[in-house]
Design a protein that fits this description.
Blueprint: H1 9-20, H2 25-32, H3 36-49, H4 66-78, H5 84-95, H6 101-110, E1 116-117, H7 133-143, E2 192-193, H8 215-226, H9 231-238, H10 242-255, H11 272-284, H12 290-299, H13 306-315, E3 319-322, E4 324-327, H14 331-343, H15 349-353, E5 355-364, E6 373-376, E7 387-390, E8 397-405, E9 408-415, H16 421-438, E10 446-448, H17 458-466, E11 470-471, H18 484-488
Parallel strand pairs: 4-7, 5-10, 10-11
Antiparallel strand pairs: 1-2, 3-6, 5-8, 8-9
Helix pairs in contact: 1-2, 1-3, 2-3, 8-9, 8-10, 9-10
């Protein structure tokens, strides 16, 4: 949403006058056809300061301070033929800050330096003058953009406005000479520079990183060195700098290889002490967010991003995962579950294949419930710190009853009304025995259901006994032990 234009002083004065007359803010906004929030802000400013003028903002905070600007100016004067992109690359490495080309462009102008193109406009040779790049920089630093040759003491020259980068004058007025006629260059070769012409550019004055030599070229350098040739001869033969040849030979003598060695990479933003601090924090409270850790480190003097926090914790073996939902267990439930596990620890696999598992489930109409992410290590998903206790609740869902065994799924029934003991026995009478016949269960099969009050009612138990259905004893609050939970997913 774009920022609106400022309200004119006359309109602000009308707002204040109507407010002093007792007109409400909503009526003022409706009569002047502006938003109520704007009217409120103007009236509130008038109450606080007694004026209707627009406050002067303090502006954005500059990325580069005075010390950085001095370093940038020294670099621009030293590498006067460098492009803005090359200066930006150097500044990001030197200042350890994320800088854009536009930011560097504005910073150069704040240094009282000016950027010129390397292409000369079509100007008569008699009007062109040649100056050294250093003198030109001094000229722009001393006189700024308002300098004209007429302002120089002692000598006067005709000033031709609009000639752009074709006319450059030395403030000392020494060394004036006509430039050779180079003709008009194509616009595709346009390049931003800190020098007067592209003729002053030398190969050693550029900042761009040279292309890495291929492995074959490096091996040729080593072979020629073993053949007895000097570094200068090798460089001339292969068209490589002598310093590059010497570096490759020294690397081969030290490591017996010309391949790229493993690099150390960028230094860690978080110190080892900071790593221990955030690891200890998430171990005590796994629900700590990345934003909380970023704020903690910022208060300690280290500014990092959320991605850095994730990478650091991942190197410590911690990963952000969704917290598992588990039943809320009381001590009595824990003892019952442990007893059940010990009783059936040695049961053969055939016994479990002869069990019909059943349960009710609800399908959320509006998607899954919200999740919570925790920091945990591998195989620690069921630790109490890494789980979310749940209890049964309803609303916004449909209820289903189903059963299955090791041989396949049984019948699935939708429960349209609120289930009670009579409805549950009716569902079993119509669907349990047909499901057992369809699954071809063996004689003596066992029926499993949980300890819901409808299941453990006296009438339900009596009905199961009359039908000669054997029920499996089941511990309370143990839906995670029922394999049908995997079927619902």
């Amino acid at each position: 949403m774009g920022r609106g234009s400022p309200i004119p002083p006359m309109l602000r004065r009308k707002i204040v006058e109507q407010y002093q007359k007792g007109v409400s803010q909503r009526k003022i906004a409706k009569s002047l056809k502006i938003s109520s929030s704007t009217v409120h802000n103007i009236i509130q400013r008038f109450r606080e300061s007694g004026t209707i003028s627009v406050r002067k903002g303090q502006g954005r905070k500059t990325i580069l301070d005075a010390r950085d600007l001095r370093a940038l100016r020294r670099h621009c004067i030293t590498y006067r033929n460098a492009t803005v992109m090359e200066i930006t690359t150097w500044a990001q490495e030197y200042f350890q800050k994320t800088l854009s080309v536009n930011t560097i462009h504005r910073a150069i102008r704040r240094c009282r330096l000016k950027l010129y193109s390397s292409t000369a406009q079509q100007v008569p040779p008699s009007l062109r003058v040649r100056v050294t790049p250093a003198d030109h920089l001094v000229c722009m630093f001393r006189f700024g953009r308002g300098f004209t040759p007429d302002a120089l003491p002692g000598k006067t020259l005709p000033f031709y406005p609009g000639l752009g980068p074709a006319l450059r004058v030395n403030p000392s007025m020494s060394g004036l000479a006509p430039c050779p006629d180079q003709g008009q260059t194509s616009s595709s070769s346009y390049k931003r520079h800190l020098s007067t012409t592209s003729n002053s550019q030398t190969p050693n004055s550029t900042m761009a990183k040279t292309k890495e030599l291929s492995k074959d070229t490096r091996n040729k350098i080593v072979d020629l060195h073993q053949a007895g040739k000097t570094e200068s001869a090798i460089g001339k033969q292969l068209g490589v700098k002598k310093s590059t040849v010497g570096a490759i030979i020294r690397k081969w003598k030290t490591y017996k290889t010309t391949d790229n060695l493993p690099r150390s990479g960028a230094p860690r933003k978080i110190s080892p002490r900071g790593v221990k601090m955030i690891t200890r924090t998430v171990s005590k409270n796994p629900r700590t967010t990345r934003g909380d850790l970023v704020n903690d480190l910022q208060r300690a003097g280290t500014k990092v991003t959320k991605a850095t926090i994730s990478n650091t914790l991942r190197r410590q073996g911690l990963k952000s995962c969704s917290a598992r939902r588990v039943p809320l267990l009381k001590p009595v439930h824990v003892r019952a579950r442990l007893k059940f596990a010990r009783e059936h620890l040695d049961d053969p696999e055939e016994d479990w294949e002869n069990v019909i598992w059943s349960d009710e489930t609800k399908i959320e109409l509006f998607g899954k419930n919200s999740t919570c992410r925790v920091w945990r290590r591998k195989n620690a998903e069921l630790h109490p710190k890494h789980t979310i206790p749940t209890v049964k609740h309803g609303g916004g869902n449909i209820m289903l009853w189903g059963c299955f065994s090791a041989k396949g799924p049984g019948r699935l029934i939708r429960v349209k009304e609120r289930m009670n003991g009579a409805m549950y026995r009716e569902i079993l009478s119509k669907n349990l025995l047909p499901s057992a016949r369809a699954l071809k269960m063996k004689c003596g099969w066992v029926f499993q259901h949980d300890n819901d009050p409808k299941h453990t009612a006296r009438a339900t138990k009596e009905w199961l006994r009359k039908k000669h259905f054997k029920a499996l004893e089941w511990p309370s609050q143990s839906p995670d032990l029922n394999p049908i939970e995997n079927l619902w997913r």
